Amino acid sequence: MTPEIPGISRLHGERGTMWNRRKQKSERARRLSGEIFEYLVLAAIVSAFAFLFLYTTSESLAHIYLDRRQIHLEEAMYGALEVWLRGLCIGAAGTVFVVLFLLLLGQRLSYLIQIMKGVEKMQRQEEGQIPLEGEDELTRLAESINYLAAAQRELRRREQEMKEAREAFIRSLSHDIRTPLTSMLSYTELLEKRGTVTEEEMQGYMELVRTRTIQVKELMDQLLEGKTGTWEKVEDIRFLVEQFAGQWEELLEERFSCRTDISGCASFSGQADITALQRMMDNLVSNVEKYADPSGAVELTVESSGNTLVIFQKNRVRREPEPGTQSSLIGLKNIQVTAEAYGGGAEIRCGGGVYEIRITLHIPPCL
């Protein structure tokens, strides 16, 4: 027995499958054409019998009529009568042929009309499918049209999703760009109010403005180029948390009594999208500036357990929001999206005049 070579066997199998598909298509084509041919033959046979019946009957009736009336026709007139009868019978037989053929073909014609209506629905972008009847070319045509209609609907759905995602991305970045710009404006106003500052304080403010300027530039690059943040290796997550907590306190300490506690955060390494985390902290700051009661304390607590960070912020809610403040919930949505990117989430509690938000981040380990 000759051993089979896997590659050759697979090739023969693919060729056999292709041949079977072609054979099935040709059989379907012959089936539809065969049905039409059968309809034609049947209609032709019936119309031929109708012609013979009508012609013999009319000729017999003509002879009987002429004999009873004792009318004798010349050969020319008798030939003209036969031609007239033959033409009349041919017309009647032709009518029988057309009517019978259309009746036999009526089912497929009605199915063709259904296909045409399905094409019109697809052009109008309406929902619906053409029912599949039979196994001929019309059925294959209806199946192809249904496939194209489904592909068109899927394409429209994806385009709509991409459009909504793009608009949400633009709204998100536009919202987050405001926070560093507001911080820069606050620094300049603070410098104007203080009048005189030391060289060290000036350098500190300039460094903060520089940091915010870089952040705005990165956000603008993401907005214009449609890019997302990059994940970086961070050797000490606690040090990064200290920086964020320090910036958070610097932005709020002029108007609020701030309390930060990161004693529960241990040092560990991991991967982080620093830009996204900065945006998240800026949204926390923005939320405090808009809705927190200045007479109450604002607390920020950061704890860690393994590679999991838990950020907790708590503040009292002012009775009336700051004039010109409109809540679009974009900041909270951005916080939720950032937390979900780390496999975590954000829990919000608001009651008794106190607002609390708990953010869980699962920091990926370094590869």
What do you see in this structure?
The structure is a single chain. By secondary structure, the chain is an alpha+beta fold. The chain has 3 domains: 6-126, no CATH class; 156-227, Helix Hairpins; 228-367, Histidine kinase-like ATPase, C-terminal domain (Heat Shock Protein 90). 66% of the residues lie in helices and 13% in strands. It contains 7 helices and 7 strands, in the order H-H-H-H-E-H-E-E-H-E-E-H-E-E. It has a 5-stranded mixed beta sheet with strand order 2-4-5-7-6, covered by helices on one side. A two-stranded antiparallel sheet has the order 1-3. Helix 2 packs parallel to helix 3, helix 3 runs antiparallel to helix 4 and helix 5 packs parallel to helix 6. The longest helix is centred in the N-terminal third of the chain and has 64 residues, at 6-69. 18% of the residues are buried. Residues 1-19 have low confidence and may be disordered.
